[in-house]
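W.,

You were right to be curious about this one. When I first looked at the sequence I had no strong expectations either way, so I just let the prediction run and decided to look at it fresh. Below is the sequence, 512 residues in total, followed by the output.
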Amino acid sequence: MRKVINVEKYYITTAIAYTSGKPHIGNTYEIVLADAIARYKRFKGFDVYFQTGTDEHGEKIELKAKEKGITPKEFVDEVATEIKNIWDIMNTSYDKFVRTTDPKHERQVQKIFKKMYDKGDIYLGKYEGLYCTPCESFFTESQLIDGKCPDCGRNVEKASEEAYFFRLSKYQDRLIQYYNEHPGFIKPDSRKNEMINNFIKPGLQDLCVSRTSFSWGIPVDFDPKHVVYVWLDALTNYITNIGYDVDSPSEEFKKYWPADLHLIGKDIVRFHSIYWPCFLMSLDIPLPKQIFGHPWLLFGNDKMSKSKGNILYADDLVKEFGVDAIRYYVLHEIPYANDGNLTRELLIERVNSDLANVLGNLVNRTVAMANKYFDGKIQNTNVFESIDKELIEKVNSLDKNVELKMENLEVGAALDEIFDLLRRSNKYIDETMPWVLAKDQSKIARLETVIYNLLESIRVSAVLLKPFLPSTGDEILNQIGLEDYSASFNDNNIYKAKEAKPLFKRIDKTQV
């Protein structure tokens, strides 16, 4: 990638995956989206730190381990390994894969809990309410939807137990003030409006932050019959794993915090935009710069679930279609604010139309012509015609256009910018008709300029495509025989094209 040193850091996190089972392609979308953003920021010269991992405590884990006849630790070790394996299959470039069962994290959570308690922000009380075990969340009657959990739609049960509470209500006014002073804190805006109208305006209730009805969690060290409630445990991973310590925060923490972006699913925006900021205020720590609640990836316009039998897994899809085809689909087809849709038919259609036809065909034709007419050696003969101007201008505007989209986290739109140039390049072949120029010896220099222009367009496209489709970007640069990572038209490159090989093969729907 581009060799630029930028003093500016960029700390990006995903939500840590809950270790209750294997993540489906909808869960996997988040890590791929974060990876594309992290890779793009590195390309732009930022000092990027990209963190992901697994959330491993809670009643749900304890029950699932019991069902399998193994310890909770054995259960989460198995699932965490599977999750990490899928993240690796998807070619994600995380800097750290964290686990909340890490002893260092557990110790810091205990110290954080004690600091909040000593400050008076945590107090002992009794909880009586409605509890959803799968979501590990308490709700009031008014928050239920048709008598069921508002997050997952499952049944809730009455629960009553002694518990420690965090004074969430204490920070309500300060939280609203922060929202007003930082209008870009929660994106998209629809998520922020939902938080204000559904949760903050009705009044924040103090939050239960410990449990006694199960034991698989981090013990409250000064009252060990309690374990720390999963959200206080899980959310603090964003600081504990970069060296936060109640007593003496590390230099790494001082360097990377506050996080530039927490990338999360829209279903957990409440925890990240209400609970998490209030926890940080209690600790006197700056708040993250931005929280982006991305939409869901649906299967045939329906939410994926085991009970519906409509789950697709990333590793299975990769075996069938390849890593970059899956990366392209999830990055391109999920809109900025609305849910995306996935079926095998839609996936095949996108592979054939965009990847095989627009991208693959352009690269294949151009590299083949370079080899056929010039033995693969192409340089700029500067025989320009007016028709070249539009293509070159489009090449030179691509970097800025992609940057504008990425600044707004419109990743699908950034890919559209790249594919617009690829489509224009295919049209340029039809306009210049290299096969006709090749028949006229007096037009050979013009033919070389045409192919040079195409190679430059392909090169810049490949460079900007690498954050999204890393392997494909590398393969294109390999085939055109040049590793120039600048993102603008260069008049002085020398290409040594290699053998033209298909990047993506068309898929016959009838055989899938």
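Here's what jumped out at me. DSSP finds 18 helices and 17 strands in the chain. And, maybe more interesting for your project: The mean pLDDT is 93.

Coffee later to discuss?

I.
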